[in-house]
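Researcher: Please predict.
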Amino acid sequence: MNVLANQAITPDSLHKLWILKPSGELLTPKSQVNYYTYNYYNIAKDPFSNYLQICGYRYVTGHQGLQQGFTESAEIVNGIVGQHPYTPPLDSLNTESREFSAITSLYCGNNGVKYIVIGRKNIYKLTQSGVFTRIYRDISLKGINDLVATKDSRTLYLVAQGGDIVSISNNKLTKLVGLNGSFSSPDGVGNKAYVSANYIALSKDESTLYFTDNNETVRKLILR
């Protein structure tokens, strides 16, 4: 279980990361502190390494206008986390992403591709060979809170702004569940259930999506 607290990293306020191993060992590495201020948004497990990937944005302390989206390996060296940062090339970003380049969501696919959401809206991919490009340009979403992908990466599941869970497959956007009816009955079964999701995880057999919602519960969506 990996938990990332939502606060900025400055010399006076260190970001919190807890890594709980299956053995019960709890790791609480310190955040790196340098002339940058870091704001982390999300973490993802990299299937091709022993490390998590952390994403967010950073800026030279005192100069917040000079923001830079980044992702880095949560490698722990001498008790400090955060090594080998990657920053997307500006010439590969559309205008909207350049204006707010924070990497707000990240998923490390089993095909070696990292799926990156910039500014909660635009989806990019980073291949193992280092090719960085925007994908699903014709699909418009007001916002993206979280995403996962199937093993073959043919389908992405996303939490859209407002709490809907949607899928993208063959360049087609499909709403699976979301806000239905009145919040006075915030549960239910099937595609008529009231769902306001925050974060999602896909089961190993890809038959179930687990998600957290605004009722502070963990629920599941059976896909097949």
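Model: The two ends are 26 Å apart (CA to CA).
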